């Protein structure tokens, strides 16, 4: 079997083209990610997931998706209910901390039921960003709240809910996207807050949840740390902040390289991301020529990165014995629209 490369890739449509099959077989990405353009009906999703894994000869390969609730939710009815955004959970938490945390766990456990039905095994959740007033709404209601404690408690509950259902969580966007005044899909934001403010407010949720298996970087410049490079391509941010200050030694993946926040061509992006200390390069939009560029400068998964990847897989727990109908009924006592 070909050595896995340090990349997570998407695909263009609802089934793989012959060109994609040959490419994945030769380049062997470590994992895959699905978006709304890849989602049709039940058997189609299962077939696509199986085909992806078959290409690289790894039936246990992770398949990721963004299934948060609210506006960031790739599986929609009838494949999965429409769930509330993180901000709705935060509102519940502010009224009753225990109820908010329980609802966050229940919703994540329901995500796990939904995702495993199609063979999807990793969810890019929880969102641990703590927005400030006036920041870009790219995070907005996706956040659990504007205070670190709410984000910490609800983020932990969501991660535990996913893992109890056999799905791996990915906390994002480390070390914090909440102060960004621009949407990284289109431009690169710079955050000018002091290091002490960042440590107290933005970094706090990631530090508290630094034992989770995976994290996704922020395409954000923190001028107090590295005024030239976004976290994703900053060796200083990754080494001094993410690894040392925050204390995260799990598997670190970039945010999407097809977003406009990162400069350079795709080979340059891939090389810069890995050189900075990320373990994995993420490319989401399925554009074939871009994936070829990513693969051209992506190396084999080895050393500490391979150790982290192997360790992440050990977080996949045997699913608890919870009954889906009971979980849905309990969640409906908080949010009856998804009963």
Give a description of the structure.
This protein is 40% helix and 13% strand. It has 339 residues and is α/β, with parallel strands linked by helices. It has a single domain (58-281, 298-331), classed as Alpha-Beta Barrel (TIM Barrel). Strands 7-6-3-2-1-13-12-10-8 form a nine-stranded parallel beta sheet. Strands 4-5 form a two-stranded antiparallel ribbon. Helix 2 (42-56) links the parallel strand 2 and strand 3. The relative contact order is 0.14.
In short:
The chain contains twelve helices and 13 strands. The chain has helices at 18-27, 42-56, 86-95, 97-116, 148-164, 195-202, 204-208, 235-245, 266-276, 288-296, 303-313, 324-331; strands at 5-9, 29-34, 63-65, 67-69, 72-73, 122-123, 168-169, 171-174, 190-191, 214-217, 221-222, 251-256, 280-283. A hairpin with a 2-residue loop joins strand 4 and strand 5 (72-73).
Strand content: 5-15%
Rg from Cα: 19 Å
The shape, in one word, is: globular
The unreliable regions are: none
Cα separation of the termini: 45 Å
> What is the CATH level 1 assignment?
Alpha Beta
- The helix tally amounts to 12
Q: In the CATH hierarchy, what is the superfamily?
A: Glycoside hydrolase, family 3, N-terminal domain
Number of domains: 1
Number of strands: 13
- Which class do the helix and strand fractions yield? alpha/beta
Give, in spatial order, the strands making up the sheet with the most strands. 7-6-3-2-1-13-12-10-8
Largest sheet: 9 strands, parallel
> What is the CATH topology?
TIM Barrel
In the CATH classification, which architecture applies? Alpha-Beta Barrel
| Order of helix and strand elements from N to C terminus | EHEHEEEHHEHEEEHHEEHEHEHHH
What value does the average pLDDT take? 94
